Amino acid sequence: MQRAFFGSWTIAVFGFLYVPILLLIAYSFNDSNLNLYWAGFTTKWYGLLFGNEVLLRAFKNSLIVATASTVLAVVIGTSAAWLLHRYRFPAQQFLGLLIFVPMVMPEVLMGVSLLVLFVTLGMPLGFTTMIIAHTTFCFPFVLVGVQARLQGIDPSLEEAAMDLGATPLQAFWLVIVPYLMPAIVAGALMAFTLSFDEYIVSIFTSGSESQTLPLKVYGMVRVGLNPQLNALSTLFIAATALIVVGSQFFTAKKST
Amino acid sequence: MKTHQSKLLAAACAGAILLAGCGKKDDTLNIFCWTEYVPQAVIDKFTQETGIKVAMENYTSNEEMLAKLLAGGGAYDLIQPSEYTVQALHKDGLLQEIDQARVPNIKNLAPEFRNMSFDPGNKYSVPWLAGFVGIVYNAETIPGPVVGFADVFTPENNKRIVVLDDAREIVSWGLAAANIPINDASDANLEKIRPMVKDWLAKVKVYDSDSPKTSLSSGDADIGVVWSGEAALLFKDNPKFQWVLPAEGFHMFVDNLAIPTTARNKDLAEEFMNFILRPDISKMISESFPYYNPNTEARKLLTAEELNNPASYPPGLDVTKAQLFSDIGEQASKVDEYITTLKVQ
Amino acid sequence: MAVSAAAITLAATPSQRRRPGPGPWFFLTPMLGWLLLFVVVPTLMLVVVSMCERDSLGRVIYNFNFENYVRAFDWKWLKILGISVWYAFLTTVICLILGYPVAYFIGRSSERVRGLLIMLVMIPFWTSFLIRTYAWISILSHDGLLNAALMSLRITNTPIGFMYTPFAVVLGLVYNFLPFMILPIYTSVEKLDGSLIEAAYDLGARPARVFGQVVLPLTQPGIAAGVLLVFVPAIAMFAITTLMGGGTNPTIGEVIQNQFTKARNQPFGAALGVLLLILFLFSLWLSSRFRHVEEE
């Protein structure tokens, strides 16, 4: 009864989330450049996409940067959240505030200041600088998520592990991390999404070899968003959905 | 011949690197340009014919380009500044002089584009495409006649108007309507036109510099002051969109290629400049961007449909009399604040 | 409430926290180093730049004064800031209302379904932001799908102007921030002990009471985190507000962005940014003090 209410609310919200997605999938088959009305079915955009080296390379770069930034953000964010929760470091409050700075700072400020920093340090702009920049504004999101999960954690969890002979490090890895896993996964998903779509910071910290998808897309607006982008997004969503559904199916089979 | 030349050049450079360690050169041309403004087909053809690899980075506004260039982030061989940016960069000595002997195709340019006020004699820049800012309207929903700004910002058009999200542009229209030179954006003049501009902006529905055609196509706006290329695209799609250059005054903008002082491969940059000045290559650029092509030889190759697009090539236009923006330097900040304030009130 | 999550993070959970030995320090140092180099240093640079002037080309001149700050304390910027905060507040509240039930449903689902649903929440956001937004524009525009549907259902005779209104702005913001509310709440719901809820029911409480007195307090950290992760970034948002709102109501993010582009006035933009930063950090700190007192 209660499930029914929450369930239908969820379906409605999912509808809201997916309506524009279904539309853009439909447009990927639309025989029109401006995508404002339906002009006929075609798969030519997919064909053109596979020949569009520039776009595909940008997509690949986005994946690389987003994945690396997510991994780093998760590692830094989770371990920082745990350390701050578990131990009483000096200047704890100050550290806690400092962590929020990347989240609060407008992207253009972060982009420009990091650019100047990298140039001063003599670092060439490219994947490394982009990953550093993306990680910096992503890890607070992971951290906040993990901290929320740490609230009200049973302290005896860690105690029990240590009573059984585990070092704090082992206790962290074998007991705390599994407990935190939903928050870590949630943080990773958020970090990936943020990084994948980041434009402003990328513009200032990228080199010619590391042009990501948003950099290409933002300028395309002037000439009309190329339906190849719709095709690319459709394929990406389809691939991700397949992987997710497939892995669920696979783990289900395993457990039976 | 060209391939031979460049192969010789590449070989010479490789030899020079080995012998004299002129390590700063590399054989890749680094272009820093507006996204999508350099068609990939043009770049591919260039590499195919000359063997020179091209690396491209993009930006979406002159100022974005300036910010990254001045911070010293990349070593760009070619940038794509607009006319007032060329002026500003040259004033600060940040552009290299072009060796015109290496860019013979410059003769293909129309004479009026060889001696523009911001760079007489094309010493520091080579025009890419030119365009105008004018009035586009849906002739089916807006009864004529529409000849100038006064016909745009009328009570009937309240909340049906789209304009560029560019403070400098908006101010220049106000100055033109008030019969003041469009580059004279002094504080006094700004105050003079304040009531008029405030009244104008109260009627605006959408500010959009990236794709003003969107709101016009979708019917959320019926009339607007936009880039000529946007209007040309609308006209191409549906001739109900009419184009008019404002009677009170309008300006032409010219996007250019230029070589910054930090460029590593000036010779490759010049070669590219020469390449795009070829009529067949310039035609390729025009096909993607229906702006005003300054290359007379290229214009001979354009289709009748392209040449008859009133937004791309306004009939009866005397380009030599077109006004250009000049750099207003620090005043840009005041102008921006001025328009932001008026938007908020 | 927006800042209570931060307050939670700052307030010490009692007795269990020990002074760190060399091990924890060893692990904290990389994070400290990262923070120092990539957060503290750029922020300091920003503060320095905010006190400078600039030349006609927009380059920074190191002539120190507080002119930019004096200029910043003007009603027009405060009004713009107020609008931005208001949009962020609305967005957060709507995200909370829409997202909590979803997070609750997913968190209480079976393990297999949970993972699937959470991924399905995120997948739409792995399309490019611009394409998503333009899809919304084509739905909401004058000649768009929504109006076509409404007119064919005879609900209205003329197209309604959904686009380029505050409604469109909030819709765009809510759409893009919803996952950032759902995910943190989900992690709190997921660890709810089902037996607690059952026990409450067994004691005769009605659903509303169970929810208000058992579920809600237990998921409070998740709610606080979600609110923080939506409200804070939403204030400095500008791309969505410009695209969906038509630029008629500039936000503080847009103004700062402008300083770095069209206005060529980086120092002033930096000053506005620094003030924004101080405003935030101050309210975070203030709420943590408040929380601290409450606990004692």
Average the pLDDT over all residues of chain B and give the rounded result.
Answer: 87
Termini separation of chain B? 63 Å
Q: Strand percentage of chain B, roughly? A: 15-25%
Q: What coarse outline of chain A follows from CA principal-axis ratios?
A: globular
Query: Looking at the structure, what is the overall shape of chain B?
Result: globular
CATH topology of the largest domain in chain A: MetI-like fold
What's the CATH topology label of the largest domain in chain B?
A: D-Maltodextrin-Binding Protein, domain 2
Task: Give helix % range of chain B.
Answer: 40-55%
Query: Greatest interface and its residue counts?
Result: A-C, 99 and 103 residues
Please state the second-level CATH architecture of the largest domain in chain A. Orthogonal Bundle
Instruction: Output the CATH class name of the largest domain in chain B.
Output: Alpha Beta
- The parts of chain A where pLDDT drops under 50 for at least 5 residues are none
**Termini gap of chain A:** 29 Å
| Number of domain modules of chain A | 2
Task: From the structure above, extract its key features.
heterotrimer, A: 256 residues, mainly alpha, MetI-like fold, 2 domains, 0% strand, globular, C: 296 residues, two-stranded antiparallel ribbon, 14 helices
Q: How is this structure best described in words?
A:
The complex is a heterotrimer of chains A (256), B (345) and C (296). With 256 residues, chain A is mostly helical. Chain A has two domains: 1-42 and 227-256, no CATH class; 53-225, Orthogonal Bundle (MetI-like fold). In chain A, 78% of the residues lie in helices and 0% in strands. Chain A starts with a helix and ends with a helix. Chain B starts with a helix and ends with a helix. Chain B has helices spanning 2-20, 40-50, 62-71, 83-91, 149-152, 167-177, 187-202, 213-217, 228-237, 266-276, 279-288, 296-299, 304-307, 331-344; strands spanning 28-34, 53-59, 78-79, 115-116, 119-120, 125-138, 161-163, 204-207, 223-227, 241-244, 251-258, 323-324. The relative contact order of chain B is 0.18. Chain B has 14 helices and twelve strands. Chain B is globular and about 60 Å long. In chain B, strand 4 and strand 5 form a beta hairpin. Chain C is an all-alpha fold. Chain C is built from 14 helices and two strands, in the order H-H-E-E-H-H-H-H-H-H-H-H-H-H-H-H. In chain C, strands 1-2 form a two-stranded antiparallel ribbon.
